[in-house]
Write a structure and sequence with these properties.
It contains two helices and no strands. By secondary structure, it is mainly α. The chain has one domain. Helix 1 packs antiparallel against helix 2. The model has no long low-confidence stretch (mean pLDDT about 90).
């Protein structure tokens, strides 16, 4: 069953959900890398704990931000699909 044939639902397609999940993972990785590197550049000596904290905070903040964006995009796609289906029904 294609996306056009399936009944209208608030649940996004599995491909869209998988893409959103991958985007959150990539953002978390990038945020962790940025947080780690930021602390690494500013710290002298033994900095294992601050680097770990920078990595954790960067990863969590970036993943949380991307999850918000992903949810908004998935909702927008659902609304777009609903509007297209309504317009198709009016034309028929």
């Amino acid at each position: 069953m294609s996306d056009n044939e399936r009944p209208l639902s608030a649940l996004p397609s599995p491909r869209a959900r998988a893409a959103a999940f991958v985007a959150v993972l990539v953002a978390g990785f990038a945020g962790g890398l940025i947080g780690f590197t930021l602390v690494k550049l500013q710290c002298d000596g033994s900095c294992a704990a601050p680097r770990g904290i920078g990595l954790l905070v960067g990863a969590v903040v970036a993943a949380a931000g991307m999850s918000i964006v992903a949810v908004l995009v998935l909702r927008a796609v659902g609304e777009w699909r609903q509007i297209e289906q309504r317009d198709r029904a009016r034309r028929s």
